[in-house]
Amino acid sequence: MLDIYRIGDEILRTKCEKVTQFDHSLEILIDAMFDTLDEADGVGLAGPQVGVDKRLFIVSLNDGTRKAFVNPEIVETSVDTCPYEEGCLSIPGVYHNVIRPSKVKVFAQDEKGHAFTVDASGLLARVIQHENDHLDGKLFIDRLSEDERDKVLKLYSKRCGRKVGADRKSDKLSSKKRKG
């Protein structure tokens, strides 16, 4: 299992680097990410959430969709949007409605470097957008109004017993950085 980094850890605010080596170590990392995601009972996990500064994320849905997206690029989004309650393994126990495009088209590579395109809607589109945000140093709370974001951060601070700042640049934990 890999450690899941939480809000306040600097890597979650880092714009990730492109994956350039498609080798056995990438396959091992992706397998470990799937094991970690399964253990955490989540639907998506991005590289920075496990301390890896690389543009990759994985998705595992109840409908059997289980896929790695390496160097993803969202190339098209629908005009129509929809709200949906999101949570994040890096902000455990906190959920909020987030408005995102209903459909996306994403271009990516698999763990071997083979290119593919996915036209996604529903939960898959949502998870792709959420995880892709992680690769640009964004969390779902960054898509909320300032007031809503403050409420979410206060709730998280109360639940985890640590103060988290109110703005994106200072959402550091008041004590040492933590994993897990």
Brief descriptors of the model:
180 residues; Peptide Deformylase; 7 strands
Short description:
By secondary structure, this protein is of the alpha+beta class.
**CATH class label:** Alpha Beta
| Separation, N- and C-terminal Cα atoms | 10 Å
Query: What oligomeric state do the depicted chains represent?
Result: single chain
CATH superfamily: Peptide deformylase
**In total, how many domains does the architecture comprise?**
1
What does this structure look like?
By secondary structure, the protein is α+β, with helices and mostly antiparallel strands. It has a single domain (10-170), classed as Peptide deformylase (Peptide Deformylase). It has three helices and seven strands. The chain has helices spanning 24-40, 122-135, 146-160, and strands at 44-46, 56-60, 66-77, 81-88, 91-101, 103-109, 115-121. A five-stranded antiparallel β-sheet has the order 1-2-3-6-7, sandwiched between helices. Strand 6 and strand 7 form a beta hairpin. The longest helix has 17 residues, at 24-40. The protein is globular. The N and C termini lie close together (10 Å).
